[in-house]
Amino acid sequence: GAGVSQSPRYKVAKRGQDVALRCDPISGHVSLFWYQQALGQGPEFLTYFQNEAQLDKSGLPSDRFFAERPEGSVSTLKIQRTQQEDSAVYLCASSSRAYNEQFFGPGTRLTVL
Amino acid sequence: KQEVTQIPAALSVPEGENLVLNCSFTDSAIYNLQWFRQDPGKGLTSLLLIQSSQREQTSGRLNASLDKSSGRSTLYIAASQPGDSATYLCAGPRDSTLGRLYFGRGTQLTVWP
Predict the structure, then answer these.
(1) Could you tell me what percent of chain A has a pLDDT over 70?
(2) Do the Cβ atoms of B32 and B93 come closer than 8 Å?
(3) Which residues contact residue A102 at a Cβ distance below 8 angstroms, ignoring those fewer than 6 apart?
(4) pLDDT, tens digit, for every residue of A38-70?
(5) A103 vs B contacts (CB less than 8 Å)
(6) Strands A31-37 and A88-95, how do they pair?
(7) Which residue of A26, A70, A87, A99 is 20 to 30 Å from A50, comparing CA positions?
(8) Which residue from A33, A104, A106 is facing B100, i.e. has the nearest CB?
(9) How far apart are CA A25 and CA A4, in angstroms?
(10) Could A101 and B44 be called an inter-chain contact, meaning their C-beta atoms sit closer than 8 Å?
(11) Does B40 touch chain A if contact means CB atoms closer than 8 Å?
(12) Do B99 and A43 touch (CB under 8 A)?
């Protein structure tokens, strides 16, 4: 595709459920980032992949959050035992390499009831 | 921790005005700088990237400048139009963070006819 795509666009989960959010980066982009955006705030960094290697996961808020990119293309962000404070928009971005221009997907809006 | 401040937080202007949006970083060691726009319920659209060796970048009615010594950037919007209404976010990586972006909270712009 021409841009970054994310699915699902919207997800409603009951507290305690596990969720999986998918990101398809621009083809050939080495770098992939996940960000979390709370209402009225700027995005906050979660984790970074260079190809399949997760080089920075310092932004993951707890050990309930896990991300992978096993073949260096599609990435999945998994949240276990969701809590209400996990409600946010989760944004994925890719770039041709680190420090280059980042292109964002439309985001997944997660609501935890 | 890198803090990013955007001023003003909100701006409401009539069509045709020239606008100035400001962005500043507490740690001036930023590698490059991107400006984005975000429409309600949507992802981020990249507007301009000022590379590490550049001081400014222009695209149509938009011009952005970067002063790395002070950690400040300014986005100029000429002859504003109602279609420019959106939230504008600035973001930049620090030299040592593999490209992870630090975002401000944005300037919410409304341009009325």
Answers:
(1) 99
(2) yes
(3) A31, A33, A93, A94, A95, B34, B46, B99, B101
(4) 998 999 999 999 999 999 999 999 999 999 999
(5) 46
(6) antiparallel
(7) A87
(8) A33
(9) 5
(10) no
(11) no
(12) no
